[in-house]
Structure formats: structure tokens, C-alpha cells
Amino acid sequence: xxxxxxxxxxxxxxxxLRLSCVASGRASSSYVMGWFRQAPGKERxxxxxxxxxxxxxxxxxxxxxxxxxxxxxxxxxSTVYLQxxxxxxxxxxxxxxxxxxxxxxxxxxxxxxWGQGTLVTVSS
Length: 124
Hints:
The chain is mainly β.
């Protein structure tokens, strides 16, 4: 599975961005997808995840109420979005799209497939 993330960029604090991720290859086997991020000098952290099998989403406490993970209207397993609102400078990071063919990854947060990342910069 190859993951291509897009939508990053520079935005002012309080603004919004929408990230997209498209999976190719064995995309139909991706039962869970999600997003991680890594800020400069910090460890990579989980942001949000979605499970097609369970029909559920989850997100980190740090982004609850501001970020929403969603899938396309046609329920295609190959695409996932991350709508980010009320952005803060501390949201600045490289955002990575992830996927896995094992539904348990939605709970374990251990994903096999990682995209190349897209940079989000929030200015104060």
C-alpha cells in the first residue's frame, strides 16, 4: 500500500486546513487509516484514526473538538481526510497518513503503512 498525503501548508493561528490521503496498491485491504504528526524536536504522536470495520473514529485529546477525521461519501477505503480547525502554533508538524489491513491497529495504533508526510505550519 502506498499513501499520498496532501493539503499541508502555511496558515495563521485560528485558521483551517484539510489534509487528504489517498492509498494505492492493495488499498482495498486497508481496514483502518489515520494520521500521526511529528513536531520539530518532538516524538511522533497519534492524531486521529478511522476504522471501516468498526465504523468508528478516534482522536487525540489535544485535537478533540478541533480536528475531524472522515471518509469520502462513497465510503471508499482508499481515501481519508483530516479537517483541522482553530489551528494553533503548537499544531505545527509534519503530518503522516497511516494505514493497516489489521482492524486491531485502530486500538493498538501500530500501523504498517506510512506516507511521506505533509508539512503544516501555523503562524502566531
